[in-house]
Amino acid sequence: MKLLLASRNKKKLGELRRILLAEGLEGIEVVGLDDVPEFPEAPETEPTFEGNALAKARDAFNATGLPSVADDSGIAVDALNGMPGVLSARWSGGHGDDLANTELLLGQLRDVPDERRGGAFVCAAAFVSADEEVVVRGEWRGAITREPRGGNGFGYDPVFRPEGHDATSAELSPEEKDALSHRGRALRRLLPHLRASAQA
Ligand SMILES: O=P(O)(O)OP(=O)(O)OP(=O)(O)OC[C@H]1O[C@@H](n2cnc3c(O)ncnc32)[C@H](O)[C@@H]1O
Ligand SMILES: [Mg+2]
C-alpha cells in the first residue's frame, strides 16, 4: 500500500516520515506530496487541530485516491488561553515564518513569570482511506523559555523546554524528540489503523 504523508512543511514531513519509518511498517510505501500530481492547498479554517487534520487528509485522499495521513499541530500556551493554537503557523501574520512567530511569542510573554510559562505542543493526526477516517491527538507538556536555544527541529522548538528536561526541544536529538513529542505520540496511536489498512 502507498501511504501519502500530506504536509507541505518539509521539516514536519521529515519528522512524520522518520517516526513512521522507525516503526518498520511492513507492506507500506511512504510517499510525500512531491511524489503525486500537484493539488491546491485548502485554507485551514477549522477551530480545532482535529478538524484541520481531517480536512487536510480528506483533501489529499480525494485528490490522489491514496490513503493519506495529515497532521495539524501547534503550541498552546496557558498564559495565552491556549493560543497560538491552530493559528501557530501564522501567528505573526505571514505563514510559516518560524523566526517571526517565536519572537512574537517571546515578546508577548516577556512579563510572565517562570511559574506561569507552561504550555503544550499539540498534534492531531488524521488518516483517511476508502475504508476509514480516524483522527487522534498527542500532547507534549513543557514551558516557554525566555530566549531561543538549539538548532534542531523547526518552528517553536527553540523556545519550548519539555517537562523533565533542561534542554529545549531544538537541543534534543531527532530520536529523543520523536520518542517524546506530540507528533510521535499521535502517529504511534495511528499505527494499528495503518497496519490494518496495509493488510486489508
Ligand atoms: O499544514 P502543513 O502543510 O502540514 O504544514 P504547516 O507548517 O502549515 O503545519 P500546521 O498548519 O500544522 O502548523 C503547525 C505550526 O505549529 C508549529 N509546530 C508544529 N509542530 C511543531 C514542532 O514539532 N516543533 C515546533 N513547532 C511546531 C510550527 O510553527 C508549524 O508551522
Ligand atoms: Mg498548515
TrEMBL record:
Q: Name one matching Pfam family.
A: Ham1p_like
The record, for InterPro entries, names: dITP/XTP_pyrophosphatase, ITPase-like_fam, RdgB/HAM1
- Cofactor annotation remark: Binds 1 Mg(2+) ion per subunit.
Its domain of life reads Bacteria
For the protein in the UniProt heading, the enzyme class is hydrolase
Which residues does the entry assign to the active site, renumbered to this chain? 72
Q: Where does substrate bind?
A: 7-12, 73, 154-157, 177, 182-183
In this chain, the stretch annotated as Disordered covers: 161-181
The catalytic activity, as recorded, is: ITP + H2O = IMP + diphosphate + H(+); XTP + H2O = XMP + diphosphate + H(+); dITP + H2O = dIMP + diphosphate + H(+)
Signal peptide start and end residues: none
For activity, the cofactor(s) needed are: Mg(2+)
Q: Which UniProt keywords apply?
A: Hydrolase, Magnesium, Metal-binding, Nucleotide metabolism, Nucleotide-binding
Q: Which Gene Ontology molecular function entries are recorded, alphabetically?
A: ITP diphosphatase activity
* Metal-binding listed as a keyword: yes
Q: Where does Mg(2+) bind?
A: 72
* Database matches in Gene3D superfamilies: 3.90.950.10
- Reported EC number(s) for this entry are 3.6.1.66
**Where, if anywhere, are coiled coils annotated?**
none
The UniProt similarity line reads: Belongs to the HAM1 NTPase family.
Q: Which NCBIfam families match?
A: RdgB/HAM1 family non-canonical purine NTP pyrophosphatase
Q: How does it assemble?
A: Homodimer.
- Briefly state the protein's biological role: Pyrophosphatase that catalyzes the hydrolysis of nucleoside triphosphates to their monophosphate derivatives, with a high preference for the non-canonical purine nucleotides XTP (xanthosine triphosphate), dITP (deoxyinosine triphosphate) and ITP. Seems to function as a house-cleaning enzyme that removes non-canonical purine nucleotides from the nucleotide pool, thus preventing their incorporation into DNA/RNA and avoiding chromosomal lesions.
Q: Which HAMAP family match?
A: Non_canon_purine_NTPase
Record-given protein name = dITP/XTP pyrophosphatase
Source organism per entry reads Saccharothrix xinjiangensis
Instruction: Output the lineage of the source organism.
Output: Bacteria, Bacillati, Actinomycetota, Actinomycetes, Pseudonocardiales
